[in-house]
TrEMBL record:
Pfam families, per database record: UDPGT (PF00201)
Transmembrane domains' residue ranges: none
Annotated InterPro entries: UDP_glucos_trans
PANTHER family: GLYCOSYLTRANSFERASE
Coiled coil residues, start to end: none
Family: Belongs to the UDP-glycosyltransferase family.
Keyword Glycosyltransferase: yes
Record key words, sorted: Glycosyltransferase, Transferase
Protein name: Uncharacterized protein
GO molecular function: UDP-glycosyltransferase activity
Species: Vitis vinifera (Grape)
């Protein structure tokens, strides 16, 4: 690993969520490839997940180091060891998780030259900014009532219930949402995992509101080697050779890849219906089931209905983490059934794969 002291040195502090950590480490590699020294703050359990990336950085002589920092679970009211957003046992604990993350950010201090990294689109950023700076929500009486977002290049409507929690005043009197917005104002610039050609009008309008905005995406394209694509984000739940052999055995653009991100939770009955739908498509498919959704009830149902026997030779189920960029970039993939998370959306676009979008499974 390079050690020259005259290199610029960036300190990166990510939100401990896969949707943020993965593009964050991609951004770190892009910076390091340009001779910049990088230090990433990470928690011990997340460091284990990203060990492959750390090892690859060392092997490639990139000046990237990870510094583990204890995550204040107990201080924020979280069970011990819940250091990643996909590990919290209930969506009701999301606020406590964000609070723990805020403790980390505030503990390190907001440096004068700090910038914010956004793992969301310029469209989303502009929507949030225009809602926040206007009084449009004051005239919305009910959560189910729709309203038009002001100052947008196109007509965009939402209901109050569809907005992120940060737009609702803190119900417990803590002022939590307000503190989050006040902290964000301190940033001196914004870095976005998007690109101008994808959303030119929304980037242009957002730049009118924020002085310094840099679109550096799609950051996933820095993973050019097969090993980088396979080890990205976590230890894959399938052997690399087995995965590639299965994909190589399919005709070009013949199979459906079904994956709903690291945070979407499905009941057993929902998962059974998804499986039946994939089977009824009469197409080869790769279906990713989150490890936390692989319940005894689900496995029992799949066994009773002999589901995996019925799809043998046509369907591949991966229980746990999948090498998404590797799969999407394979010529055999002809469609992507997705929850519309921003990372998945950009990765699908970069791979030129048509997407079947099901954004209702997770609030955006």
């Amino acid at each position: 690993m390079a050690t020259q002291s005259n290199y610029p040195h960036f300190l990166l502090v990510p939100l401990m969520s896969q949707s943020h950590l993965i593009p964050f480490t991609d951004m770190a590699k892009l910076l390091a490839l340009r001779g910049i020294a990088i230090t990433i703050i990470i928690t011990p359990l997340n460091a284990i997940r990203f060990k492959t990336i750390i090892d690859q950085a060392i092997h490639s002589n990139l000046n990237i180091q990870f510094i583990p920092l204890q995550f204040p679970c107990q201080q924020a009211g979280l069970p011990q060891g819940r250091e990643n957003m996909d590990s919290i046992p209930s969506p009701d604990l999301k606020k406590q998780f964000i609070l723990a993350s805020m403790f980390v950010f505030l503990g390190l201090g907001m440096l004068p030259s700090s910038s914010r990294f956004h793992g969301i689109s310029c469209f989303t950023l502009l929507c949030c900014k225009n809602i926040e700076r206007s009084d449009v929500l004051k005239s919305v009486a009910a959560d189910s009532e729709s309203f038009e977002v002001p100052g947008m290049p196109d007509k965009i409507e939402f209901t109050k219930a569809q907005l992120p929690p940060g737009f609702q005043p803190s119900s417990d009197g803590s002022g939590f949402a307000e503190k989050m917005r006040a902290t964000a104002i301190l940033a001196q610039g914004e870095v976005v995992n998007s690109f101008e050609e994808l959303e030119p009008d929304y980037l242009l309008e957002y730049k009118k509101l924020e002085n310094k905005v840099w679109c550096i995406g799609p950051v996933s394209l820095c993973n050019k080697e097969m090993s980088n694509k396979f080890g990205r984000g976590n230890k894959a739940s399938i052997d690399e050779n087995q995965c590639l052999k299965w994909l190589d055995s399919r005709k070009p653009k013949s199979l459906i890849y079904a994956c709903f991100g690291s945070l979407c939770h499905f009941s057993t009955s929902q998962l059974i219906e998804i499986g039946l739908g994939l089977e009824a498509s009469n197409r080869p498919f790769v279906w990713i089931i989150r490890q936390s959704d692989c319940s005894f009830e689900l496995e029992e149902r799949l066994l009773e209905e002999r589901y995996e026997e019925r799809i043998r030779g046509r369907g591949l189920i991966i229980r746990g983490w999948a090498p998404q960029v590797l799969i999407l970039s394979h010529p055999a993939v002809g469609g992507f059934l997705t929850h519309c998370g921003w990372n998945s959306t950009v990765e699908g676009i970069c791979s030129g794969v048509p997407m079947i979008t099901w954004q209702g499974v997770l609030p955006k």
